[in-house]
Amino acid sequence: MQNKGPQQCGPFFFSARNIIVLILRSALHSTRQGKSIGLPCECPGGELLCTVSLTSPIGHASIILTTIGMIQAMPNRKLKNLLYEQVARIGKAASSPKRLELIEVLSQGEKSVEQLAAATDISVKLASAHLKELKSARLAEARREGKKMYYRLVDVQVAEMWVMLRQLAEERLLELQAAMKEMVSHPQELAPVGGKQLLTQAKRGDVTVIDVRPETEYQAAHLPHARSIPLAELKARLGEIPKSKPVVAYCRGPFCLMAKEAVALLAKKGFKASRLEDGVAEWRVSGLPLVNET
User: Fold this and answer.
1) The whole model's pTM is what?
2) Any idea which residues carry the catalytic annotation?
């Protein structure tokens, strides 16, 4: 960063510079290569107008900061307020139940606005508004293909944030604990083992693991040794599942009902079936391997 004149940002110069770089890097996801944008930035020494020039592909762009003017000194308290305000943008974006559900669905892979609206049972217009909020907080990014807009999470850390937030809520909120108990129809509904033990059993062929999410989500990432049988196709494809061994179904995580419906159907047809509460995001947070993840 170069200043016009001898002014500097004072003793917090390098910390402020890092803040500005982070802010500008986040803008790269929504700006095309070869263009420049002007952003109002702040540092402890004052307010800056920063020009960003994109000279290489997104994700590998070089950032050129040009200081147009230094206006007024920023006291330490104002700086601290600015820092907390920026972090609060994430909390604000995640404060909507529907936006949390959208994050969960996006944890499975990229989807169109129409697909996301259908998955969360809201209108396309409302889904678009929520997605713009996630994009504004740099939690999601969008691309256009013809007339359709597609969204995806900017990083797996966003999916991990959702998992950790949900886990914290489960530990602290009695109401959530009670609601989750209501989701379990009988004790045998939940898989008796999970994680590494389930992985070992599936590798040996002792258990059949089925992924009942849509095929596109399976292709994006799935548990090792799992086969894709989407819930909508399960009834027609029962013949592909051996009755001689237990079946474990999984979907998007503990709040997802697709695996619960799959287990009910399988049990009615004479299969020894249970569901795994963990999905791809939970599996990743646990440090367990996934297949096809890019």
Assistant:
1) 0.76
2) 251
